[in-house]
Design a protein that fits this description.
Elements (H helix, E strand, L loop, with lengths): L23 H21 L8 H12 L34 H14 L7 H6 L4
Length: 129
């Protein structure tokens, strides 16, 4: 990337976090612990909203705010992040400059879908344009 990454500690690939962890293993453990707890809480008490972009940002903030000061904000640069669940590969993230438009389009399509007619496998593999 040509820009300085404002989300990582200089000279590392570790996300700047509220605990000051500069070791990826420590951050991964904290992120895992917090996200499991927060997602379980959200499954019991969903955040109210219309499942639009602002609601998605609210959910992101709820899940990650204990770890990251930027939780719930749209990012300012293109990113890649190694994912242990994907054998170290990165999720394919959208480009920063088209993120709001693309998210809005996908979220609108999701809102317009009749989820009750899809089985679990169809919900998992559904492709969003």
């Amino acid at each position: 990337m040509s820009k300085v990454d404002p989300y990582i500690y200089p000279g590392t690939y570790v996300l700047i976090n509220k605990f000051g962890f500069r070791n990826q293993i420590d951050l991964d453990k904290a992120e895992s612990d917090f996200t499991v707890l927060k997602l379980a809480e959200m499954s019991e008490n969903p955040l109210s909203g219309d499942y639009g972009l602002a609601h998605l940002c609210d959910m992101h903030r709820y899940v990650f705010n204990d770890l990251y000061s930027w939780a719930g904000e749209l990012r300012t640069i293109d990113i890649e992040k190694s994912e242990p669940a994907l054998a170290g590969l990165s999720v394919e993230y959208g480009k920063q400059d088209s993120l709001e438009r693309e998210l809005g389009s996908v979220l609108t399509e999701m809102q317009d879908s009749d989820w009750s007619v899809l089985n679990l496998n169809e919900k998992i593999v559904k492709k969003w344009n």
